[in-house]
Design brief:
Elements lengths: L8 H12 L7 E7 L5 E7 L1 H7 L1
């Protein structure tokens, strides 16, 4: 698990994905954050390969 701050879920995932893609086979990354009502939202970003396999 890694904790990373970001102005958006996409920004929070950008640097860890760039660093980890060269070391590990990553199929998906997630972010968890609160919306304005205090609910926890989940954002899942899959690799292009994993997305193609799922489709």
């Amino acid at each position: 698990m890694a904790v990373r701050r970001g102005n958006s879920p996409g920004h929070a995932l950008h640097r860890p994905r760039r660093r980890l893609d060269t070391v590990l086979p990553i199929d998906g990354l997630t972010t968890h954050y609160l919306d304005r009502q205090g609910r926890v939202l989940l954002n899942v970003v899959r690799s292009r390969r994993a997305d193609a396999q799922i489709r």
